[in-house]
Amino acid sequence: MNKRKIINDPVYGFVKIPSELIFDLIEHPFFQRLRRIKQLGLSGFVYPGALHTRFHHALGAMHLMGLALDNLRNKGHEISDKEVEASQIAILLHDVGHGPMSHGLEHMLTNTSHEQISLLFMKRLNREFGGALQTAISIFNDTYPRKFFHQLVSSQLDVDRLDYLQRDCFFTGVSEGTIGADRIIKMLNVYEDELVVEEKGIYSIENFLTARRLMYWQVYLHKTCISAEQMMVQLVKRTKQLLQKGKNVEASPNLLLFLQNSVGLSELKNEPQFLEAFANLDDIDIWSSVKLWINHSDKVLSTISRML
To answer: Which residues of the chain are in CATH 1.10.3210.10 domains?
Structure first.
């Protein structure tokens, strides 16, 4: 089977899947779940075009990582093929631990961050793939000796931010969020194993910072988006209260597990049923439950469900 596929991305055009290992990771159910988790959670209430998913974002960030490392190689920095693949795997899987509604319900279903859950998934995949993800995990964890690899994955100027700003700007139609990602990548360099920006790239960085600030004002912190997120948070809180009182509340088995239990990093690490259930949770679990709760006898639960 030919695993060197090309994906037509609406933001960048044709994106190559660079290796067979990365193809297999993309095909894995852990990663495919991201197709069913919207990147911007409930922002679609304000921006109807914001229907893109974590799946789109992860592929885009992987593509930008490849461009960034090609640029650094062209500037004379020694970067092995193994390091390139590991970096692309690290950024591909950086959001695999996101739960339903992305950031909106991040601390409502579990008591830990999506980064910690991403790491658990990466370790699980590393076992499944015979240790092939060990370097990627080191880069993700910031334990790899060459620090600039982690900085490309997670820093104030990483390929994660470069992709989500461009992608969110594209799908929401908020043109003020436009950044010159191509030029920023061209201006990146490495000095003493730290990621730096060449002097002539300073205006592109200023534009990047301004665009990010504007996207927070107009999209991420839009009053209607925040209101919808808070309604969803209150809905989950109410469901947990009713379950604690012994009331019957219908939901998918995977969602019920997290509504009925306090689940932290320890439970996800040590009790396999929790990580397995989380690996099957997505936006569909939430919305199908909301549809059921519209007719629930509890006035608070049914009212918020109907409003959403």
So the answer is: 6-221
